[in-house]
Amino acid sequence: MLRRFVWVAAALVFAPACKTECHPYGSVDGPWVSVSVGGNQACGIKEDGSLLCWGGQYEDELCPPEEQFMQVSVGDQHACGVTTDKRALCWGQATDGDLNAPGGEAVEVAAGENFSCGIAASDGTGICWGNNQYGQGSIPAGLAHIDVGQWHGCGIEAGGAHSIECWGSGQWGTTQAPKDGGYAEISVGWAHSCGRKDDGTVVCWGGAGGAKDAMHLTQVPTGTYKRVGAGAFATCAIDSFDELVCWGNANDGVTTNPPNGAFVEVAVGGDRSNNNSQTACAIKTDGKMVCWGNNDDFQATVNPDWN
Q1: Which of 115, 153, 220, 289 has the most crowded Cβ, counting Cβ within 10 A?
Q2: pLDDT at site 115
Q3: Residue burial 25-35, b: 16+ Cβ < 10 Å; e: rest
Q4: How confident is the prediction for the chain on average, in pLDDT?
Q5: Is 48 strand, coil or helix?
Q6: Under CATH, what is the fold of the domain 2-19+31-306?
Q7: How sure is the predictor about 96, in pLDDT bands with cuts at 50, 70 and 90?
Q8: Is the dihedral of CA 280, 284, 287, 288 positive or negative?
Q9: Domain ranges of the chain
C-alpha cells in the first residue's frame, strides 16, 4: 500500500558548482555490470558497486551519492539508483519533486522526464514521485519490473501470465501494450516501448511523432534477443550471438554504426532538444564499456574523471 511509504528527501542536492566539487571514485576500466543512458548523460555500475556518471552537467546529473549501487536509471536531467542496502536515491535537476524518493527499501527504480517510479522491497508495491500531469505517476498495482519514458511507463506483471501493463500519456500509442504474456524484460523510450519475451522475441509499440517514426521504431529485425534497450528515437538489442542489432532513427550513427563484439548489456538515450541527438552504450562480455553516437557533451566518452 502506498501509505506504508514515508516521504523523505532521499538525495542531497548539490550546488551548481558541483562540476568542480564532484569527484567520481575508482577506475573507469571496469569491469562494468550495468549502464543507463538518458538525455545527454550516462551512468554505469562497476562490479564493485561503485557508480560513475559522464556527459552533460547542468545541475548535478554527474554527481551521484558515493554509495554502492546495484541498479541505476538515467532520465532526462536526473537519475535514480538503488543502493546495495536497497535505498532509493536520486540526483540531478530537481523538478516537480522528481528527486524526492520515498523512504523504505526498494528493489528497482526508473527515471523519466521530471518523474520517477520505484518498486518497494517489502511487498512489491509500485510508487511514483514527481510530475503527474499525464497520469505518469499513477502506477498500476502488481508490477515486478518497470521502466518509464517521457510521459508514460510500462511494467511486467509480477504474477500470472507476465503480461505488460502501461500507464500515463497514451499519445502515439505508448500505452497500447501487447495483450499476450510471457515477458521477461521491459524497456521504455521517449515515446515507444519494447518488451522481450521468454523465447527471445522482441515486440515494440508506440512512436515518436508520426507514422514514419512509429514504423521505424516498431519494426523489429528478425531474430531472437537476450537484451533490449529502447531509447528516445532508436532501440538496440543483443541477439542470440551476443552481437548488437539496432533499429529506428539513424541520427548520429546509433543504428547504422554499432560497435562489433560480444555484449551483455545495452542502453540507448537521446535528447530531443538537440536536434534529436542520440547516444548508446553497451557492456562487452569482458566487462568493458563502449559508447557511440552523439558526443556533444562527452556522453559517448566513458571518462568521468574530468569532473
Answers
A1: 153
A2: 98
A3: eeebebebbbb
A4: 88
A5: coil
A6: Methylamine Dehydrogenase; Chain H (2.130.10)
A7: very high
A8: negative
A9: 2-19+31-306
